[in-house]
Amino acid sequence: MRHDGRAHDQLREVKITTGFIKSANGSALIEVGRTRVICTAMVEHSVPDFLADTGKGWVTAEYGMLPASTPQRKQRDRGGRMDGRTTEIQRLVGRALRAAVDRELLGEKTIWLDCDVIEADGGTRTAAITGACVAVAEALRFLKESGVTFPRWPLKNLIAAVSVGMVKDAPCLDLDYVEDSNADVDMNVVMTDRGEIVEVQGTAERKPFSQEQLLKLLDLARKGIARLNEIQRAAAGLS
Question: How far apart are CA 177 and CA 235, in angstroms?
C-alpha cells in the first residue's frame, strides 16, 4: 500500500473540465490529485516560415508554473528567459501533441497550446500533455463549427501521458510529489490510445533498473493511459 492508500496500479483521481477558459478556442482544466493544469488551445491561420506553402499545419506548446503552484514561490519566467526544465517540458508537450494531429488535414494553421500549472503535486508534464490533447480536440471542434471544412477529422488519435516509477522496490503508477522525490526510478511515458509509444523519459534516480523492470513499468503506464483515454473521451464528447 502506498502512502496515500492507493494500490500500486491505481491512478490518482482524475477530472477534466472543458470550456474552462471561454475566450480560448479550446480549453481544459485537468486535475490529477492535487496537481492542476489549465490547458488552452488557440488557432492561428498561418504557419512558421519553414512550413509556408507546404499545406501542412503546426502544433506548438508553451508551459509554465504559476508562482504559488509550489509551497516555495516559483519566480516567473521573464524577458524570454526560461529555466532548462521549462524549455524541456514545453518541447515535450509540443512533440507529443504533434503525434495526435494530422498536419496535412489541419492545413496551414498553427495550434498554440499553453499549459499553465496552478498547483503542482507531481506529474505536471504528464497532466499537461493529457489535458492539452483535450484542448486540441475542442479547438478542432471550434474550427469545424466556425465553417472550416476538413476532408477527415484531423485528430488522428488521443495522446495521454503518465508517470511510473520504482518506489521502495515496487513499480508504481502516477507518482505524486512525495513518491517522485523518493523514487529509485522515475519515468514519464507518452502513448497513443492504440497503445503506441510516443516518448519515454526514464531515469535511474538512485539505482539502475533492469530490462524486466522497464517492461513492467511500460505495462503499468499502458494500463494507466488506457484509463486516461477513457476520461479524455468522456470530457471531449468523443466516441
Answer: 26
The length of the chain in residues reads: 239
Domains of the chain: 14-236 (3.30.230.70)
DSSP type of residue 126: H
CA 141 – CA 32 distance, rounded (Å): 25
* CB-based contact 231:16 (threshold 8 Å): yes
Chain position carrying cell 488506457: 226
Q: What is the pLDDT of residues 6-49, one digit of tens each?
A: 999 999 999 999 999 999 999 999 999 999 999 999 999 999 99
Distance of CA 132 to the CA centre of its chain: 6
Residue 30's Cβ-count burial label (10 Å; 0-12, 13-18, 19+) is: buried
Helix, coil or strand: residue 231: helix
d(CA 76, CA 53): 37
Cβ distance 171 to 164 under 8 Å? yes
User: From residue 30, how far is each of 39, 53, 143 by CA, in Å?
Assistant: 8, 36, 22
- Of the CA atoms within 13 Å of residue 27, those in its CB half-sphere come to 12
Phi, psi angle pair for 154, to nearest 5°: -70, -15
Query: 181-220, pLDDT tens digit by residue?
Result: 999 999 999 999 999 999 999 999 888 999 999 999 999 9
**Residue 81 pLDDT level (bands cut at 50, 70, 90):** low
List Cα–Cα distances, 83 to 79, 111, 201, 237, in angstroms: 12, 24, 19, 36
Provide the pLDDT for residue 219.
98
CA angle 44, 47, 53 (to 5 degrees): 135
Provide the pairing of β-strand 26-32 with 14-18: antiparallel
